[in-house]
Structure formats: C-alpha cells, structure tokens
Amino acid sequence: MIKIEEIYTIFLNSGENVSTDTRKEIENTLFFCLKGDNFDANHMAEAAFEKKPTAVVTEREDLKDVKGYIFVADALKTLQNLATFHRRKLALPVIAIGGSNGKTTTKELLYAVLKQQFCVYATPGNFNNHIGVPLTLLQLRKEHQMAIVELGINHHHEMTELCQISEPNFGLLTNIGKEHLEGLGDLEGVAKAESELFDYLLKNNGFAFINLDDPWIKNMSKRLPNKHSYSITDKDADTYIASQKLIPNILFQLENKEISSSLSGDYNFANIVSTVAIAQYFKVTKDAIKKGIEQFVPSNSRSQWIKTNTNDLLVDCYNANPTSMELAIKNFANLEADHKLFIIGDMLEMGSFAKSEHLNILEQLEKITAANHVFCVGETFYQFKNNFEFQFFMNSEALATFFETHPISNTFVLLKASRGVRLEKIIPFLQ
C-alpha cells in the first residue's frame, strides 16, 4: 500500500491542489474518489482521469496497477491523513471554533479582524465536517500565519475526530445549546460532545478561549490550565465589554474607541466579544479590531439585514435550533418598531424532541406578541394550527402564495428557520 509521504509528494507536484468533484476543473490536481450515502465517485474514476488530474485516488482494486491511479483502502481516510500530514508541516496557530450557535459568524468575524494584521486562512463557507475540514487544511500555504478552522458536529465523538484531523492548538466553543438533538440527545449530551474540543486541548497542551456567560462552558473549562476568558456580563473576565446598543445594530466601546457593527442582538455581541478576546491575545491593534468588525457584513442568510423597497428584513434562516430560535425571537421582540412580523420555520434534526421544542417556541411567542404578527412555516409547526391563533403554512411555497395576494409594507420582518425550510424563497415576495 502506498505511504502517505508518497501521496504528499504527489500533492506537492499537483501545485498543492486537491479535488473531489468531476463537475469542476480538476486538471493538474490530486483527485479523490469519495463516497457517501447517495454517491460513490469511485464509479467515475475513469471519467475523472480523462480530465487530466495529476493522479486519481480510488478504492477500485481493478485500477490498482494502472498508471495514474493510486489505490487505497479508504479514500476519505487517506484525504484526512494527508490533511493532517500537511498541517504538521506548517508551524502556525490553528484556531478551532466549535459550539452550538454562531460558529460561522464568529469564524467570519475573526477572519475579518485577524486579516488586518496577519495572513490568515479560514474555513470557506460551511466546510466544517469530516470532508470539509481536511479540504480546508489542504488549502493552507507557507505564507499563511494563522488558520481558523470551524468544527461542526451532529453526533458523539465527531469533535474528537475533527480535532485529530486538524490538530488545533487554540480553541473556542461559542456556546452550548439545543443543537442536533436527534444525534446528540439532550442538552447534557450536546455539552459532552462539544467538550471533546477542550479534552483535546487539555491533552495536547492547547489554549482555550472561554465564554463565562455560558454556564456549561464555564464549568467544563475549570480543568483547563491554559485559557483566556471573555464575557459581556462578568467584569472579572480577562476580556469584558459591555454594549451600548444591541438593536437594530450593535454599538460598543473598546477602551476609547467606539465600534459599530452591522450585526444585531446580544447573541451576536457575544460573538464579537469572543473575536475581540482572541484578537487581543494575538496582539492585534485596537484600530485593526475596529476596522475588521466595522467592515464585516453578514451574508448567506445569517443575521443579515436586508432593506427592501417596502420592508426591513432580518434574515436568519441558514440554521435554527431551539436555543438560537429563542435568542432570535427575544432580540427581535426588543426591537422598537410600529409594525413587526415574526416568520418562523421548522427546526430540523430534533428527533424525538421535535414536537415539544416547537410547542415551547409557540408558547413563548404567544406571551410576547399579538397573534396576527406570527407566521409559522413547516410540517412540525403545522401540527399546532388548531392550538394557536397564529397563521400556519405547510411550506415556504404556501407562504409565498399568501404574500402574492396579501402584500405587506413598512414592516420589520424576522425570518428564522432551519435551512431545509428554505424561507429565503419568500424574500422576493416581501419587496
């Protein structure tokens, strides 16, 4: 069997470029035939080879001795091992970001700040799983001074696996909330799974950034000797910052500098303060911190304000779980506006907790707003259409049809749901 050192030489000869998708340009790259639940690229090994990659890594034994092909027992494991081998060649800080909510926003914020002073590479998009993490690491180059790697999990022991691949020497858990309950169980299960990042750092003399405002994280961090704490409420934290304004946009003071952000809400302010804490640890100047935060504009339906011709939309429908839903609703409820509309969609991957958690959200909404200001979208919420006076829709298409004949104007609208609900489809109908 070929050694990882030999594959690494081929990787270097490929311009340090790997590929996994025959639909894209793969010439002069090292191509990996990966397989998943619904696909197996090994069946397309010859088609990939015709597009002139440096070599094709495949599990096909019939191609074992054919020139241009590299036979391995497990192509994904080989990709992961190659990424780890490459990461070890680069002596640089690798900052891992985990947690239930706000990982991507924090990663993008931190990148926006650190790049003001360093050459930084960060996880592109949501490449945060067992395939995305190695692909991220293989994009690191000698000129990079720092790396930010987002680690996303939905089952136990996955965090340990991702840490073993990426070997971070710094780590942050944003918070512990009700995420992926179908795979992680209850809140305690989530905390246990996420804490594997701290376990890794502890065993490998790593350094952690600690959110003192999250009781789970505060407690699990007590055993860590190397840490820097931050808080928006605890003045004893290593980095403590209080907000001046949270809605509709965040405003705060960093020593003598006033900093504004396009983000909204205390949950996003916590993401900002974690970014400041890490930046200060790495000696980033206040001017660079201010510039990075103020330049950052959220996108991809994550805490994104969109002003249309007639309405103001807070679009946060890339992901949702009970914790992030509660925070978004609380934040939007505090917004001072004459006309507000809550459009909430199903929270996916809740497993046996789905019905009770959706009911809990509806009961919270019933306490804080008038019934005609809440629209609920999705099959799970729709089960409760006879229990509440809100308006219920089976899917986003049904809601879009409603808005075609019932347009709204001069309204602040919250759109919050899991990605699978596709609430962004109704944005054109709110113009």
In percent, how much strand structure appears in the residues? 15-25%
Number of continuous helical runs: 16
> How far apart are the termini?
59 Å
Content-based structural category: alpha/beta
Average pLDDT taken over every residue: 95
Write the layout of secondary structure elements.
Layout: H1 4-13, E1 18-19, E2 30-32, H2 45-49, E3 55-58, E4 69-71, H3 75-88, E5 94-98, H4 103-114, E6 120-122, H5 132-137, E7 146-150, H6 158-166, E8 170-173, H7 181-184, H8 187-194, H9 196-203, E9 207-211, H10 215-220, E10 227-231, E11 239-240, E12 243-245, E13 251-254, E14 257-260, H11 266-281, H12 286-295, E15 304-307, E16 311-316, H13 322-333, E17 340-345, H14 354-368, E18 374-377, H15 379-382, E19 391-393, H16 396-405, E20 411-416
Parallel strand pairs: 1-2, 2-3, 3-4, 5-7, 5-8, 6-7, 8-9, 9-10, 10-11, 16-20, 17-18, 17-20, 18-19
Antiparallel strand pairs: 12-13, 13-14, 15-16
Helix pairs in contact: 1-3, 4-11, 4-12, 6-9, 13-14
How would you describe this protein?
The chain is 35% helix and 19% strand. The chain has 431 residues and is an alpha/beta fold. The strands form four sheets. It has a seven-stranded parallel sheet, sandwiched between helices. A six-stranded mixed sheet has the order 15-16-20-17-18-19. Strands 1-2-3-4 form a four-stranded parallel sheet. The mean pLDDT is 95.
